[in-house]
Amino acid sequence: MNSSIMNTYNRYPVSFESGHGPWLKSKDGKDYLDFAAGIAVNILGHNHPDLNEAMKVSADKIWHLSNLYEIPEQEKLAKKLCSLSFAEKVFFCNSGAESVEGAIKIARKYFYTMGETERNEIITFSGSFHGRTLATLAAAANSSYLEGFGPIPKGFVSVPFGNHEAFKNAINENTAGVLIESIQGEGGIRVIPEDCLRAIRKICTEKGILLIFDEVQSGVCRTGKFFGYEWASVKPDIVTLAKALGGGFPLGAILTTNEVAKSMVNGSHGSTFGGNPLACMIGDKVLEIIEKEKIITNVSVISKILFEGLSDLLKKHDNKIFGIRGKGLMIGIECLEKNSLITEQAFKEGLLLVNAGDNVVRMLPPLNISESDALLGIEKLDQALSNIKL
Ligand SMILES: Cc1ncc(COP(=O)(O)O)c(C=O)c1O
Description:
By secondary structure, this protein is of the alpha/beta class.
């Protein structure tokens, strides 16, 4: 196709015309079961009536206001996020990368303000993904994403995933923070063991280092808790959110404590669109629906169904897939065959899935999905795997 759009994405040859719950209808009338959910964004599916209503009401009020003025919708959403977490202060932005970039700035400024001006290094883990800005790419240290974009911002030390010794050795007097996904999403649904997260917390506390959780993909109930790190009962210092927070509307947030936020004074950070009334009203409605529709309970019910269904498929297709990882509705299928072959076959069967690193196929369905649609997803994957002739 002769497209005027920059060639940065490899797209499926489909365009969708309408959506309802976990279903999308293509222009040529075919139905697709959406187990990608805009890559962990549409947690309430497509066209949720209450969310649409909130959008319409807000659109008829005020779309945008700059942060030169008080924005009550922002205040309300920030209070809710604090009440759901360790946090006492929130900064709103528009995307995941922006929230991680902001978290890095906050960690550095915290130590700078205390006179520790050299303490600016952030430790990260191999296989992580934190976004596509220069600093977030430098943080994740994935060379294939960095190639050609140098000079690369300094101040990041990547240690091998799961190597505690390497992690401990990377800490020095310049370490400001540890940036970690409680479950690596793009890296292939790699769950960080709970005792490992607790050990990292302990070391951070001992050394006075800030623990930053990137919950952009795992946050907002995706794993069956509001934040993925809650499974380990650890308290972060900074948390980033985006994706699901706006249920499909661009909205990101950085959460932290009063102590850490104290260096973020007037003028130290900003965003034109961050925290606009429209986005915040929608974010607030997302949180209201999560509560009203008992989304966390649904995640645990559906998760069990999907894990059971997938373990049956593991036995049946043991020459194509060999393992399941994840928590809640953040599920990864470990493939023997090339993962893209499986997602392409699933696509032909009308099931949308997402590839991830480590040759994994991701299932990220909307969190309000029904049991019958979850089972249908398993059926479609079964058929897709059967279609692959070795
Ligand atoms: C854990 C994590 N952090 C950050 C990002 C970047 O988010 P965005 O694409 O909204 O900038 C992503 C996106 O996939 C992510 O999974």
